[in-house]
Amino acid sequence: MEFFTTINSVYVMIGSIALGAMCGMLGVFGVLRKQGLLGDALAHAALPGIAIAFLIMGERILAGLLLGALVSGLLGAFCIQYLVKATKIKMDSAMAAVLSVFFGFGIVLLTFIQRLPSASKAGLDTFLFGQAAALLKIDVILMSSIFLFTLLVVFIFWKELKMFIFDSSFAAVLGFRSRFFEILFMTIYVLAILVSLQAVGVVLTAAMFITPAAAALLWTKRLLSAVVLSVVFGSISSASGAYVSIVAEGMPTGPVIVMAASVIFLFSFMFASRGGIVWKAIERYKYSKKVNLENLLAKLYRDTESGVNKWQRSDISLIMLWRLRSNGYINSGNEITLTKKGLVSGFKVVQKHRLWETYLVERMNFSHDHVHRDAEIMEHLLTDDVVEKINSILGNPKVDPHGKSLKMK
Amino acid sequence: MIIVILATLTCALIGNFLVLRKLSLMGDAISHAVLFGIVMAFFIVGTLHSIWFFILSVLFAVFLGFIVQWIVERVSISRESIIGVVFTFFFALGVLLIVQFAGNIHLDTHAVLFGSVEFSVFERFVFLSFDLGPKSMWTLGAVFLLNIFLIKLFYKELKITTFDPNFATSVGISPKLIHYLVMFLTSITVVTAFEAVGAILVVALLVVPVVTSYIFNKRLNFMIGYSLFFALLSSIVGYLFSVYFDVSVAGAVAFISGVILCFVVILYKMFAYEQTN
User: Fold this and answer.
1) Containing structural domain, residue A117
2) Which of B77, B114, B257 to mutate to test binding with chain A, by most A CBs within 10 Å of its CB?
3) Which of A27, B9, B137, B276 is a Cys-bridge partner for A213, taking CB atoms 3.0 to 4.6 Å apart?
4) Which string of b and e fits A248-260 if b means at least 16 CB within 10 Å?
5) How does pLDDT run across B70-101, given as a tens digit for each residue?
6) Is this prediction's ipTM beyond 0.90?
7) Residue A399 lies in a domain
């Protein structure tokens, strides 16, 4: 492929995938701690550090800028923690306050820098919106080593991190130094943010951490599988973002990565085994189909009880006819009759309804005219085992409170 | 300068309820995601200066609140993560749309992010050929009055639903309805203010003065009063600061409000320390 002919593209690809994987991994921890937007806050907080580092150095040296960003990012993290701890300010307000103040200060410095007669200043803008296509070999090496470092940290402290996330007080009881992990966690978080600032910029860094992680958590509730899945989602979206930004001239990397990640999230939201809205809708549809069929069978059985055992085709809608027949509940001819199976199934629904009414009246002291609606729901839910149990509790009653038969005709 | 003051006051007023309801980051989300709304409104209306443009943006912001609420009710992931997913998606979409289709129009991401109070004075509001001053001043003023009016009208309801939603339901006030009122006011405030001052300053103005006053206030009306005072203070000092150093107004106001917050925290800690001894 032509795309891989330039060596630089390979670097960009590797760098982006490492980035996506790293953010995906850390994002799971952030989202589970309900601090998903911490990434957003710290990304903004890093800006003044970048600007100050630039002012001190007078030129654009990546390592120096990142060091500045690291310091101010950590300072921002510390400020958030301090505000929450020392005052009654809540986490979300603290994040919003630190984010906007630090970023405001960063903008002040940037506008100040823009008035300096320094030629290399243009590079600072890429931190705002990111430019993965401009990644150099040295950047990629830096990215990959930071990725490997965070991977190592997560690997070594896996158990501790897990406990720290899910039950920090339990962890404290067991003697884990939660303060140490707080600092450790913040440090690797800020490191990851710094790297992603380069590629996707300040605003969209939040998405690198949240979106793949949130999508992964829709599929699974196990930490390990969530982390693995999130890493996969993160890498896929970064790779596709980088690809588009290399191939299509002028397409900004960050937004494309975020779009890819959002598509994955949307897909997960619709189809994930837990909570996917499509599956929920299908389940609801199946249930309502079952309810309709059972209601019809019950009606046919009650008709039978009162002596009617033949029906005209026109009494029943076509679709219901088809469903009854395909289940073997009716014999079809010009006139419709219930099969043995249909009769039994109809009886079961009616029995459940009446038995439940009896139970409510006898054991729960409901008045007999207040039990119909509840039974209307329960007749579709009770299982045969439960029916047997209720029957034996009530001593095999012959009639329900309305005087209707509980035995099959 | 009047624009900045009006913007800060408007934001701080509604910001009180956002902070108390733990919705601070919603302001952040709306101000970013509304970029998409603005781009769409621009495509539909074709100009940045009509009332329809404004209405569409506000509608989009309200819609955003609905989406977040809708997803939150359906998944077991915390609200703030959902906010993060949704707003970054729309922001990214907005940026892509600008890059792809609107390269030559007057809509640049920088102005959206940092605001351009400096330039908003050039857009005049002309009525019957009288120059009545900058347009943002009038829209902000109108929104400010609307906020005051609605908040005053629903003050009791807002107060009860904010502090005790269960009690509110039991006396017949719908917390959900009031929630949407707050979201509506936030949307309209954010859209208006950020046209003038940019996304980041909007977040700063919504949250920082309020948080500052939240530290040492226990009563809602005092909290609102002090937050307005801090808002006023930071806008005036910030404006002078930016003029003196010739830097971004929005950034300077955000920065100064942060400095004030810092002072208040230190004073509060010293005071609290003396009290305990």
Assistant:
1) 2-275
2) B77
3) A27
4) eeebbbbbbbbbb
5) 888 877 788 888 888 888 888 888 878 877 77
6) no
7) no
